[in-house]
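Posting this for the archive.
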Amino acid sequence: MEDINNLLRNIKLTLRVEFIYPCLGGISINTNNIPNPSDLTVMEHYLKLIEGAKNNEILASCLPQSKLYLKITGILYIQPSREKLTSEDITSFIGHLELFESICLAAKPRIIEASPKSDIAIIWYMGLSKWF
């Protein structure tokens, strides 16, 4: 990820890659801003240069068409094991629910305490629909 950000910096772009993860049978690249078509071309060209990349599998880049935001409430912030709830806990839990099988994470779930004296968490979840 640092290599692609160095490339973007070297060609004087302000676009930066925040993280890269597998999604929808390919990869998803989360950036600090919405890339324009020429930015997508630069990133696609970079991916084809990576050693071990299968160029014939890199077909085309595109922007997502559908995002969803979900607020989950009523989950214990401090678990019975006395550990705080983590985004990995939420990701694992959501991954096992049939309701979310057509959703791919667009960012880590955000966990916020409902109030300083409450043991309840508010979870914000951003995802991409696999069916756009």
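The chain has two domains: 2-57, 67-129. The beta strands are 17-23, 26-31, 67-76, 103-105, 110-113, 120-129.
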